[in-house]
Amino acid sequence: MQTSLKIQNLKCYGCANTIIKKLSDIKNLSELEVSNDTVAFHYENENTLVEVEELLNSIGYPIEGDKNTLTAKVKSFVSCAIGRLNN
C-alpha cells in the first residue's frame, strides 16, 4: 500500500535526512520520500503504518492534526541538527 502523511515541524534538509535515516530502519517500508511537509512511502500492513507514525512522533514530527507539544518541537530541532551534522 502507498500513503503520504502530512507532518509538523519539518523545516529543512536536516529534518528530512533524520526522518529518512530513522524510517529506513523499519522493515516492510519502501520508496520513502520526504518533501515539503509530507512523508510518502509504501508499506505492507497496518502495523508498519502505526510504527511509522509512532517513530515520527518520537523524533518530533507528529502527524498533522495530532498535538504538537513543546516537547515535540524541541525534539524536532534536535533531530534537525543531527540531520545537518550527518549530511
Automatic annotation (TrEMBL):
Name of the protein in question: Heavy metal transporter
InterPro entries xref list:
HMA_dom, HMA_dom_sf
Species the sequence originates in: Algibacter aquimarinus
Under the heading Gene3D superfamilies, the entry gives: 3.30.70.100
Q: Which superkingdom does the taxonomy of this entry point to?
A: Bacteria
